[in-house]
Design brief:
Layout (H helix, E strand, L loop, with lengths): L2 H16 L3 E3 L11 E3 L1 H20 L4 E4 L7 H6 L2 H4 L1 E6 L6 E3 L19 E4 L3 E3 L9 E3 L5 H5 L2 H8 L5 E10 L14 E11 L4 H18 L7 E5 L11 E9 L2 E12 L1 H10 L5 E3 L4 E3 L2 E8 H12 E6 L2 E6 L10 E5 L6 H12 L5 E3 L5 H10 L4 E5 L1 H6 L1 E6 L5 E5 L3 H10 L3
Parallel strand pairs: 3-9, 19-20, 19-21
Antiparallel strand pairs: 1-2, 4-5, 4-6, 7-8, 9-10, 10-16, 11-12, 12-13, 13-16, 14-15, 17-18, 21-22, 22-23
Helix pairs in contact: 2-9
Bound molecules: adenosine-5'-triphosphate.
């Protein structure tokens, strides 16, 4: 990273803290490495991203169903999935400074911190282990799920039956996953507790490559609809040495972060690996019978697996902008309106003459449908700037003219242009602007 880019990450971390987007977890105790909390503004942004994903995957596809599976699962699940055996990273320790690294991240075999000698690589399982029940013995060892996908596979038959779907169809899920990463970092890019948005699409073997291509394109399109700059997005195909144990083909969608091109989402052709293994390990038949062709087969799976937190970081990095206006720096998050945490700031120009009451009434009415923020303190310019910093797309101001003709000014965040509209049209106006591009 050059200094300008380091600067951007530093500025973002500090903005996130100051404005209630992201806090270090357990900050009063000095924090805990790679765990983060979302503040009042951050939780809105995160929920909006998840809603946007859910709408585009579940609501806009008749053949995709939703699911919310348990984080704690039967321990055999992780044997069947291959995670107990192979969900590992090679780990090396520096003999001098005792720091720990992923072997694949230190190509020169010399400690990147102090130049010291490194130990031989050993395999380190990334799953968090804990115990279920009151007795701490081997039989009760369980894991926190390292991916949400397995909750979908074990429910394949349940969803198939209750939804009366036919292949091809998909199951989508958003939920927490846990990985004891060796080298976490880059703010919320690599965390030990994070959220995934995964969709597993079950298809007939032989049609998997075509479906893979379809989902690959659709998922790229999704990031563009989310407002991410297309020039900063690209595909990266996994070479044979990068492929996970279950994958036939894998592409990542990458974004160009200040710290390099990095994965946002994995699109994998998982073949029939998972359903086959769960059939073997559980003794339950997870095959599918096609009524029309009278064929029975174990479906192939095309997986799209995205990180909520990484998407959120991408939105922040991509949206952050500074511009100089009359010698002052304006910080603005140019977030797509549909994911902006606050949709409109509502301001009385001054704190008298009935303007606060009128503005509060507008805020109350809009608050039935949108997350809006009422603010009457300080100069109007400062109030606009505060909203710019968290990406609020509109500022609605009640001034003396409002008292006479029941109109307000609406200021647009990016252009800072203002137009005057009648109060009874404000709701429609916002609805129209916020659903555009959705
Ligand atoms: P990486 O190579 O970065 O470790 P991965 O290839 O192991 O990621 P997958 O197992 O494909 O990742 O997980 C799917 C998605 O889940 C990733 O694209 C990413 O968005 C998200 N994800 C995975 N690990 C983490 C993590 N430690 N912190 C935040 N998000 C993560």
């Amino acid at each position: 990273m050059n200094s300008k880019e380091t600067n951007l990450m530093d500025k973002l971390v500090s903005l996130c803290k100051r404005r209630g987007i992201i806090f270090q977890s357990s900050g009063i105790y000095g924090g805990i490495n790679s765990c983060w909390d979302y503040g009042p503004v951050g939780v809105e942004l995160k929920n909006n991203i998840k809603r946007f994903w859910w709408q585009s995957m579940v609501y806009q596809h008749e053949n995709i169903e939703g699911l919310d599976a348990s984080i704690i699962m039967h321990p055999r699940v992780w044997e069947a999935s291959g995670h107990v055996e192979s969900f590992t990273d090679p780990l090396v320790d520096c003999k001098s400074c005792k720091r720990r690294f992923r072997a694949d991240e230190v190509p020169n075999n010399r400690c990147p911190e102090c130049g010291g000698e490194l130990t031989e690589a050993r395999q380190f399982n990334l799953m968090f282990k804990t115990h279920i029940g009151p007795v701490e013995e081997e039989t009760s060892v369980i894991y926190l799920r390292p991916e949400t996908a397995q909750g979908i596979y074990v429910n394949f038959q349940n969803v198939l039956k209750c939804s009366r779907q036919k292949i091809p169809f998909g199951i989508a899920q958003i939920g927490k996953a846990f990985r004891n990463e060796i080298t976490p970092g880059n703010f919320i890019f690599r965390m030990r507790e994070f959220e995934q948005m995964e969709m597993q699409f079950f298809v007939k073997p032989g049609t998997d490559e075509e479906w893979f291509e379809t989902w690959k394109q659709k998922r790229m399109e999704w990031y563009i609809q989310l407002g991410i700059c297309p020039q900063k997005l690209r595909f990266h195909q996994h070479g044979p040495d990068e492929l996970a144990h279950y994958a036939k083909t894998a592409f990542d969608i990458q974004y160009e972060f200040p710290f390099g091109w990095k994965e946002l989402e994995g699109i994998h052709n998982r073949t029939d690996f998972d359903l086959r293994r769960h059939s073997e390990f559980s003794g339950k038949d997870l095959s599918y019978f096609d009524d029309e062709t009278r064929e029975r087969y174990i479906p192939y799976v095309v997986e799209t697996s995205a990180g909520v937190d990484r998407t959120l970081l991408t939105c922040l990095v991509d949206a952050y902008d500074e511009e100089e206006i009359k010698g002052e720096i304006r910080v603005v998050l140019r977030l797509a309106p549909q994911i902006a945490p606050v949709k409109a700031g509502i301001f009385p120009l001054v704190k008298r003459d009935g303007m606060p009451e009128m503005a509060q009434k507008i805020a109350h009415n809009l608050g039935q449908h949108f997350n809006v923020f009422y603010d009457e303190s300080g100069a109007i310019g400062r109030r606009y700037r505060r909203q710019d910093e968290i990406g609020t797309p509109f500022g609605i101001t009640v001034d003396s003219q409002s008292l006479q003709d029941q109109t307000v000014t609406v200021r647009e965040r990016d252009s800072m242009l203002q137009e005057r509209i009648s109060i009874d049209r404000v709701g429609e106006y916002l609805k129209d602007k916020l659903t555009k591009g959705n």
